[in-house]
What does this fold into?
Amino acid sequence: MERKFINVILLGFGFMFVFTAFQTMGNIEKTILDSIKQDDPSFTGDGYTSLAIIYATLAICNWMAPSVITITGPRGAMLIGAVTYLFFIVTFLFPRTWLLYLASVMIGAGAAAIWTGQGNYLTLNSDGETISRNSGVFWAMLQCSLFFGNLFVFIKFQGKSHIDLHTRNVVFGVLTGVCALGIVFLMLLRPARRNIDDVKNEMTMKEEGPMEAFRGAIRLFCTGDMMLLSAAFIYTGVELSFFSGVYSPSIGFTLAMGENAKQLVGLSGVFIGLGEVLGGALFGILGSKTTRWGRDPIVIMGYLIHMTSFFLIFINLPNLAPFGDTTDTSYITPSPYLAMLCSFLLGFGDACYNTQIYSILGGKYADNSTSAFALFKFTQSLAAAACFFYSSRAPLSVQLGVLAVLGTAGTAAFCRVEWAARSVARAAARAALAPLAPGEKPASRDVEDALHYD
It folds into this structure.
């Protein structure tokens, strides 16, 4: 196994364990904090507010992330970010409203560092032929975190309508240990063996310094293709916040689901994880084959899957489900089986979008991957923060309507960029294969890009 692929595997394990802790906590945070409020009236922390602060801070700090990378490097940035995730989990053992929101700010800043570092490190360990495979493998390993963490929660919450202190502390303690294990894997990451272009790019980054890296990120954000891709980034942010912090608690709040409604919160996370892992593994294994036909068919498939799931959620869950316990029903009697199917569809559709976004950023912006991934996380996180802010006020039907509109716009924008890139590559290939004038050199890079599609 080549060294770069080993680095990708280690990266996947590190993120799998760190985000087993965080994504599990994000999935149950609203439910957990409501139980803490019942035991301690002085505690007024809110799960939606905490998650909104995390993603808002993440969005703001992403503008500084490229500058941080020039100082720490991608591995140092990921370690710093992972420590803030560990701190966030530990604070739940000592529930204080001010501490919850302070930790939310810290993890938001840490998330900017860890995700920008991850995007840069993944690109350094990939090339045009392996970026789709590596993106899919990483995504599948990352999303195993949803499966393992929520399966544990499903077992611990079994038969409980109220999450007592002992159960909460056991869950927090285990997640703390899992997060620490993830940090150990990140410490094992080795520098990528760089080719000449990688070395030149790194030397250029160091010569430019943090301020030039910041200005470079702004210039990249203002390009036409990045503005179009931002529509897709926004959609992934809104649907991320919906399935990771709104949908699963809404199932638990739907009392018509039966006595084990709270237990279904963890089970929903398991099925979301199954969809994510299956999608990531499928597009990782078949990465070289699917990229041959372009990235747009996979994104369109994700769009159709999500639209189907939104309709099924609309008829299955009551309109007031995001706000708290309710005995209301929707157009049909709430079905746990249908709810779990929708969880799986949400996860699989999300994998369709994210694996292809990672692929297009790592391929199209290989020489400026730090800024490209920082802008992706900025736009995605800003949209996620906005979603969490309105989630505590907007009924389920409104949230699903927003998702449908943004999903349509984001998918169309992504396909526009992909089709334009394919058209340019084909035109360049035809020009390169035409008879050359005396002394003219073939456009080898453009030919290679065209063959990547054809």
Remarks:
- The CA atoms of residues 233 and 376 lie 6 Å apart.
- The chain has 15 helices and no strands.
- The radius of gyration is 22 Å.
